[in-house]
């Protein structure tokens, strides 16, 4: 059995870590004035500067050897061609097929899936054009003015992040809302501002079985029926993005308004599928296709570029260097772009739900670190929140700075301040304090690494490329760690126990630990009757924003 940590390359990297431990990053630049030119890379509208890393030429060469000696070439070919690489769920992993704009057949279980991908894309085009043009009418003949996406995890984070990132491309007459938390105040707050006659709900759920989404969808439907339409009108105000057509239709969604996708699309990789419906409604189908094209362009780069000039591979190897050889436990994502403020949350699920694993693809426990804790917040806000720890704390946190170069019209001065702050921070993390001695409390040790990723402009195409870049970075790390990045068994346990607890809210069950029993007793004092969410006790009192013409005229 292959032992990653016993490989010659891994051992050589451990030696290099010791040999370079006292290196100063800034000295790498002194020794090689061309370092920036050599350690930066452009792919389409994205530019990566990876020169401010604690990585000597020898370390980089050895990291590339790690990739060369891994199963990357084979596993990548398997993923793109639809082989079953999600071995525990016995599924292919084909989010790349969703942005494949060609017609070459792609066989899954002996069937070419490209026709149904094209068919669903056409269904999305038609629907988004109907809603955006006003052709799609609500129960009393009005156009849609608010779209509410109800979903959680990958059925929320991707479309939510993209709609926010591309807000300047949004349809001027339609507002978009995202409800995800089972906390009833989330949906209550959204519904209180809406007119049921002009609201469209998208129930986004791959399985159509996620408790939070189903409860929110039922509450939305109850609110609609109490404030406006009748059962027959649900179809004009509710559509679904799901793999479970049957359950969607049982909910009351018309068959033609179920936007299907497939089991071989992972939730956290699904924004290119029907789960991306809010994006197409917001920025238009053409914009959605631009996003797919940007991702496809990154796919082609990932497939064809040599490892030494492959952006996802390089980012993956840099991460492995810090995680497995420098002891970094976390990785910070700091977009200097308010439009990308939801990117850290999206990347958290993408990375941590993919590589938060401790057994390899054979089920054997690994003896090395795997996925890091991914976190972050926009700059310049982070400078006033957690940068102190990053500058002078005891922890080693590699940072991805992300920004777009082109300013929005009218705020060029702000954008200049934003970008100069980012460059200053990246420099300060690397250089540290120059003048003061390292003993005084004001000095910053420096030598703290970062990458800088610049988008020419925050466009649908460049956002698509950016997301695909991180998808493939996560994939490469998973391949080198020999783990399955595409299942998520760890989230099933909590779901099961939640069901058991909610079923026993009324009884003193000895099945739970003393803490849970004690806490349940406190909770029980506030819930005299069993709260199943179907007894009307969930929040439906949210009044419609205004009674348009009330219920349909008799
Ligand atoms: O977090 C577990 C998970 O299954 C995610 O992978 C998924 O994105 C989310 O829950 C929502 O699942 P669904 O889209 O089936 O409602």
From TrEMBL:
GO terms for molecular function: carbohydrate derivative binding; glucose-6-phosphate isomerase activity; monosaccharide binding. Its EC number is 5.3.1.9. One of its GO terms (cellular component) is cytosol. Residues 530-554 are annotated as: Disordered. Keywords: Cytoplasm, Gluconeogenesis, Glycolysis, Isomerase. It catalyses: alpha-D-glucose 6-phosphate = beta-D-fructose 6-phosphate. Pathway: Carbohydrate degradation; glycolysis; D-glyceraldehyde 3-phosphate and glycerone phosphate from D-glucose: step 2/4; Carbohydrate biosynthesis; gluconeogenesis. SUPFAM superfamilies: SIS domain. InterPro entries: G6P_Isomerase, G6P_Isomerase_C, Phosphoglucose_isomerase_CS, SIS_dom_sf, SIS_PGI_1, SIS_PGI_2. GO terms for biological process: gluconeogenesis; glucose 6-phosphate metabolic process; glycolytic process. Its main location: cytoplasm. It holds the Pfam family PGI. It is found in: Cytoplasm. Residues 537-547 have a biased composition (Low complexity). The active site is at residues 353, 384, 495. Catalyzes the reversible isomerization of glucose-6-phosphate to fructose-6-phosphate. Belongs to the GPI family. PANTHER family: GLUCOSE-6-PHOSPHATE ISOMERASE (PTHR11469:SF1). This is Glucose-6-phosphate isomerase. It comes from Halomonas eurihalina. The gene is pgi.
């Amino acid at each position: 059995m292959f032992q990653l940590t016993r490989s010659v390359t891994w051992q050589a990297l451990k030696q290099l870590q010791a040999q370079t431990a006292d290196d100063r990053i800034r000295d790498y630049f002194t020794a090689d004035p061309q370092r920036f030119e050599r350690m930066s890379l452009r792919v389409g509208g994205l530019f990566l500067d990876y020169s401010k890393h604690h990585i000597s030429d020898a370390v980089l060469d050895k990291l590339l050897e790690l990739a060369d000696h891994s199963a990357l070439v084979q596993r990548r070919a398997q993923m793109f061609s639809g082989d079953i690489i999600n071995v525990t769920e016995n599924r292919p992993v084909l989010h790349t097929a969703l942005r494949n704009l060609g017609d070459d057949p792609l066989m899954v279980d002996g069937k070419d899936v490209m026709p149904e991908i094209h068919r669903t894309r056409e269904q999305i085009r038609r629907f988004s054009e109907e809603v955006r043009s006003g052709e799609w009418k609500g129960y009393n003949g009005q156009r849609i003015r608010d779209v509410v996406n109800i979903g959680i995890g990958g059925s929320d984070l991707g479309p939510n992040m993209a709609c926010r990132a591309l807000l300047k491309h949004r349809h001027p007459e339609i507002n978009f809302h995202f409800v995800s938390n089972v906390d009833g105040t989330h949906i209550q707050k959204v519904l209180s501002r809406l007119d049921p006659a002009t609201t469209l709900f998208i129930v986004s759920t791959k399985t159509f079985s996620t408790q939070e989404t189903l409860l929110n969808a039922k509450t939305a439907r109850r609110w609609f029926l109490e404030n406006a339409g009748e059962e027959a009108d649900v179809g004009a105000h509710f559509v679904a993005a799901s793999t479970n057509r049957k359950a969607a239709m049982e909910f009351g969604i018309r068959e033609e308004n179920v936007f299907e996708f497939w089991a071989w699309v992972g939730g956290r990789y699904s924004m290119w599928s029907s789960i991306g419906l809010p994006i197409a409604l917001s920025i238009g189908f053409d914009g959605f296709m631009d996003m797919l094209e940007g991702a496809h362009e990154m796919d082609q780069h990932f497939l064809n570029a040599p490892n030494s000039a492959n952006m996802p591979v390089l980012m993956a190897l840099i991460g492995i260097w810090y995680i497995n050889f420098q002891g970094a436990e976390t990785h910070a994502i700091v977009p200097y772009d308010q439009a990308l403020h939801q990117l850290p949350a999206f990347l958290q699920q993408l990375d941590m739900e993919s590589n938060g694993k401790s057994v390899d693809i054979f089920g054997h426990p690994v003896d090395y670190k795997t996925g890091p804790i991914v976190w972050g917040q926009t700059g310049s806000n982070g400078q006033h929140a957690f940068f102190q720890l990053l500058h002078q704390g005891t922890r080693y946190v590699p940072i991805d700075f992300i920004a777009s170069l082109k300013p929005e019209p009218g705020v060029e001065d702000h954008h200049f301040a934003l970008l100069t702050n980012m460059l200053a921070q990246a420099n300060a993390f690397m250089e540290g304090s120059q003048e003061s001695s390292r003993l005084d409390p004001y000095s910053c040790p420096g030598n703290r690494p970062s990458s800088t990723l610049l988008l020419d402009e925050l466009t649908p195409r460049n956002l698509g490329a950016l997301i695909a870049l991180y998808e493939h970075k996560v994939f490469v790390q998973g391949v080198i760690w020999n783990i399955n990045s595409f299942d998520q068994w760890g989230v099933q346990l909590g779901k099961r126990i939640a069901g058991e607890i909610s079923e026993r809210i009324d009884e003193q069950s000895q099945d739970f630990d003393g803490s849970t029993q004690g806490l349940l007793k406190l909770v029980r004092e506030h819930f005299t009757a069993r709260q199943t969410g179907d007894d009307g006790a969930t929040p439906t009192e949210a009044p419609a924003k205004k009674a348009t013409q009330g219920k349909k005229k008799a």
